[in-house]
Amino acid sequence: MRKAFALVISTGLLTALGGAAFADKGPGRFERADKNGDGFVSKEEFAAGRDEMFTKLDANGDGFIDQAELDKAREAWHQRANKPAQSDTGTQAQNKRRGFMERMDTNGDGKISREEFAAAGDQMFAKLDKNADGKIAKDEVPHHRKKSDAPASGDAPAQ
Predict the structure, then answer these.
(1) pTM for this structure?
(2) Which of 24, 73, 106, 154 could form a disulfide with 13, with the two C-beta atoms 3.0–4.6 Å apart?
């Protein structure tokens, strides 16, 4: 589960696509995704956040997200978060940064289409919607669970 949610929040810029509805890190991200204020993030609200994130990431507006756009968005996120730029350019660091692209680019063409992004978001929504009621409650989001509800570090499921 942690890796699944990390897909959304990994790479510093989607802190996924987070599910993309939870893409902006920081206090209030759940509340911002809950547009109607009912205490839940519906599939529609989640999809709207995901679509907004895709549009932001697709800087050149060609309908695809490429690695250069991901790298640029990651750099901008680091600047906004006052985090040091990732200066490591070794193979391991490059592989880590490119992992998001590899997971999302299901047809292997080197870019993420809106459809690929949406499919990953749908999968993420299903994983976060623990009780399958079609909406995500705040306590279903890993970062919002009470410490007593969180699994012990050794209890995390293998992915």
Answers:
(1) 0.68
(2) 73
